[in-house]
Amino acid sequence: MSDEYFYGVTLSSSHQSETWDPEAKAEYPRSNKLLIRQALLGPDAKPDELNVVQVETMCLQDSIKIPVAILKVGETRHARLDIEFPDAPVTFTLTQGSGPVHLIGQHLLGALVEEFEDMDEMEEEMLDEEEGDDSQFKEDENKRKGAGKRKANEDEDDEEGEPKGKKSKMSNNAKGKATSPKKNAKK
After folding, report:
1. What is this structure's pTM?
2. Closest CA to 2 of 120, 124, 106
3. Euclidean distance between CA atoms 12 and 89, whole angstroms
4. Which ranges of the sequence are coiled-coil (predicted)?
């Protein structure tokens, strides 16, 4: 359903900023997602120089600018990021240092918007079918509950098939068992 492509960009003093915006170039509507896996400091980076990579993207209500990697020769040459950007545009900027800093990840190119609409229709149909299945399940469950109640009533009968309760006292008397002495004293 989606295609996955390698994504890489190098930021340096000569190329300090790069914007990922596939929607501006797209000829047909598809969903896009960018995953940045790691930032690597290039082998010709200057010693004792901090290299700061900042990202600018949209959050819930506004745009946000925030550093995502700080790299230094001899201390940190790479950083595992695993950052997902579901919305374009995303701008990466080398705000400090001369780099080079390599950003590596994947560009996920999703299905056509029409395919998503078809999926929504299919999900609605599946939900309708499940609701129908649920009502059938409830009917079957009610039948089983009714059978369970009948079975419980049958279990209340004693061994000879006579129901328990008032009649069981009479059956005890019929078997030759005497009633309690207190009851005989009152009579």
Report:
1. 0.56
2. 106
3. 20
4. none
